[in-house]
C-alpha cells in the first residue's frame, strides 16, 4: 500500500500553542516559552516521522496560522526533502479539520489517491518512536488482508479493491488518542469522535464507530502528549530515560530538541515528599 503519515499541528506561534501551559491559564510558562517548547516538540516528532522509509510525510496546519513562519520552522528538520506536502486544515471544529486532512490524501470515491493508508499524528507526541510508526503500518497491512478486513471494506472503485478495512490507534494518558490510522476502504470518519453527544472520550468514540462497522482494529504503544503542566512534569523523567537509552540501543530516538529546550528553561520534575 501507499502509506502516508500526516502530522496534524498548529503553527508554533506565541499565544496560539500550548496555552494551557501558560501563566495566563494557570500554567508555568510564558507564551513565548510555550511556543519554544512546542516548536521543539513538533520538529522532534516530524524527524521521527521522516525516518520511516515506506511512508510519505504530510503536514496539515491550522488555517489561521502563518504559513511562512511554519516554513521557516521546518527548515530546521533533518530531512526536509521527505516532506511530501504542506496544507491548511478546513472545517469549523476539530473533527471536521482532522477529517479534511485525511480526505486530502485518501480521496474517498476517487481512483487517484495520494495514499491508500494513513496515520495521523499530533505535533506534540514528544517521545514518539520510529518502531511505533512501523508497527502501525504493518498492522494496517495485516488487518487489511484479513478476512475481517476484506468483509468490512467499502470498495468505491476497482483500482483499490484488494485493500481491506483496517484501523490502528494509540491511546494517550487521558483516554484520548495521539495516533490513529486506517486504509482508504475503511468505512470510518472522524466526525463526532471529539465532539459527541454521549460525552465519551475520543478513544472510546473511535472504538465504538469501529465496532458498529465491524472494522478490525489493533492498539499501538501508548504515546503521551503535553497539554497540561502535569503532562510536562510526567514527561521529563521519561525523556531523560530515553536519552540514556540511546547509548545502549540504536533503535531508540531521544527528542533532542525538546530535551535541550526544557533544560534551557531550567525545568525539572519533582515529587512531593511524604
Structure description:
By secondary structure, this protein is α/β, with parallel strands linked by helices. The protein is built from 8 helices and 7 strands. The chain has helices at 31-50, 67-74, 94-106, 130-145, 147-152, 202-212, 229-245, 256-264, and strands spanning 3-9, 56-61, 83-88, 117-122, 167-171, 177-183, 217-219. A 7-stranded mixed sheet has the order 3-2-1-4-6-5-7, sandwiched between helices. Helix 1 (31-50) runs antiparallel to helix 8.
Mean pLDDT value: 93
Report the C-alpha radius of gyration, rounded.
19 Å
Low confidence ranges: none
Helix content class: 25-40%
Please provide the count of β strands.
Answer: 7
The fraction of residues assigned to DSSP E strands is: 5-15%
Which structural class fits the helix and strand makeup? alpha/beta
Question: What is the ordering of alpha helices and beta strands?
Answer: EHEHEHEHHEEHEHH
Count of helix runs: 8
Oligomer: single chain
Shape: globular
User: Whole-Å distance between the termini?
Assistant: 54 Å
Main sheet characteristics: 7 strands, mixed
Provide the spatial order of strands within the biggest beta sheet: 3-2-1-4-6-5-7
